[in-house]
Amino acid sequence: MEGTDKIFFDSKKVKHKTLFIGTIIFVCIFGLIAFSIKAGYFSSLLNNLYSDSRDIGKEGLIHFSATTNEPGYFSSIFILDVASQEIFGLEATKTNAITNTEHVSPDGLSIVYSESILEIKNNQNYIPSMSQLVVFDSRYNTTDAITNSNTYKTTPEWSPSGTSIAFASRKLTKEVPVTDSESWDIIITDLSGSETFLTNGFQPQWFPDGIHLLVLKNNGVYIINKDTKYERELSGIEKIPMSPNMNIDLSRDGSRVVLSLSDSGRVFIINILSLESYKGEIEREIPGQAFWPVFSEDGNKVALYEVNFSSLDTNPRPRITVYNLETAERKTVYDLSAFDPESVAITDWRY
C-alpha cells in the first residue's frame, strides 16, 4: 500500500521488560510511541484498511492500545493486520497526549478513542486527572473532542447506528481502586457531547438493537435497557467465579459473550439465550490464561492477549493469539515482547 513504509514498526529493536497484568488505567499512564503517523497518513490508512479494494486485512485487523518498552513514551493506538502481521500506529494530535482504548465506527470511516494530556510538574510526570473522547473522521481528515467533562473516560463503544457512544467514566481518587468495576459510571454521549448517565459499571457493549447494553459489575454481567434504565444480572452463568476487573466483548450479532477474569486469566464463552429474560449459559472455557478478549466480526474467532503464567517474572512471552471457536485451534499472530506488558489492551477486530 502506498506510503505504508513510513509507519511500519520493527519490534526487534525494542527490549522486553517484566510483566504485570493490570486494568485499563495502566494503558493510560505508562508511557507517545517511538514511531507513529500523522493524521493525514492515518486518514489514508483508515480508508485503505476498510475499503473493499484493500490489499491488506483479509484475515481481519486487530486494534489494540499499548506502550513500547522505550523509556519516556506514552500509550498509543495500533492496528495489526492478522494476515501479514504488519502493525500500524496512530500519532496523538497534541504534545504529551496519551491515547488508548479505541473503537471503529460501524461504517469503518471513523474511530473514537480516549485522549488525555500528561501532567508535568517539577519535571515529574503525573497521572492525568481527566481525559476526553476524541473522534477521528477519515472522510474529512478531522479530529474533534466530543466530550468536555471533568472525568477520566475509557473503553468507548459506538452504538450500532453510529450516532451515540457508550463509555466508562469516573474521577480518579486514591480512596477507590480503579479495578472496582462499580466505581465507574456508564455514560452515553451523542456526537455533540451531551452526556447521559446510565448505570454504574465498566466496559459497556451494545446489543444490535441499539437499546440494550451489556455492562460489567463486580459480581457479574448485567443487561440494561438504555431507555427505561431497567437492569438485571445475566442468569445461567453462576459457575463462573466473578470478580472485579474483568473484561468482556459481545459478538456483533449479540448471541455470544467472551469474558476473561483478570485475577486468573480464565476465559469463558457465554451464549445469550434470551435477551428478554436475561438468560445465558456457559458454552465453554477456552484453555490457557488470557486477557482483553475480542470477537472477530463473524463471531467465529477470539483475539486474546496471552501470557505464560508459570513464568511471569522470567519469560511471560506476551503475545496476541487467535482462537478458532469452530476448530479449537490456537494461533499466535503477534509477539508483544516489544511492548510494556502492563499497557496492552485489545479493543476491536474488524474486517
Written description of the protein model:
The structure is a single chain. The protein has a single domain (4-236, 338-350), classed as 6 Propeller (Neuraminidase). The protein has 351 residues and is mainly beta. The radius of gyration is 19 Å and the shape is globular. It has helices spanning 25-29, 39-49, and strands at 61-66, 76-81, 86-90, 97-104, 110-117, 119-121, 124-126, 132-137, 142-145, 152-158, 164-170, 185-190, 195-200, 202-206, 212-217, 220-225, 231-233, 246-250, 256-261, 267-274, 279-286, 290-295, 301-306, 319-324, 330-335, 345-350. A hairpin with a 4-residue loop joins strand 2 (76-81) and strand 3 (86-90). It contains two helices and 26 strands. Helices cover 5% and strands 43% of the residues. Strands 3-2-1-26 form a four-stranded antiparallel β-sheet, with helices on one face. Strands 4-5-8-9 form a four-stranded antiparallel β-sheet. A four-stranded antiparallel β-sheet has the order 10-11-12-13, with no helix packed on it. The two termini are 17 Å apart. Mean pLDDT is 80; it is low at 1-42.
Fold topology:
Elements: H1 25-29, H2 39-49, E1 61-66, E2 76-81, E3 86-90, E4 97-104, E5 110-117, E6 119-121, E7 124-126, E8 132-137, E9 142-145, E10 152-158, E11 164-170, E12 185-190, E13 195-200, E14 202-206, E15 212-217, E16 220-225, E17 231-233, E18 246-250, E19 256-261, E20 267-274, E21 279-286, E22 290-295, E23 301-306, E24 319-324, E25 330-335, E26 345-350
Antiparallel strand pairs: 1-2, 1-26, 2-3, 4-5, 5-8, 6-7, 8-9, 10-11, 11-12, 12-13, 14-15, 15-16, 16-17, 18-19, 19-20, 20-21, 22-23, 23-24, 24-25
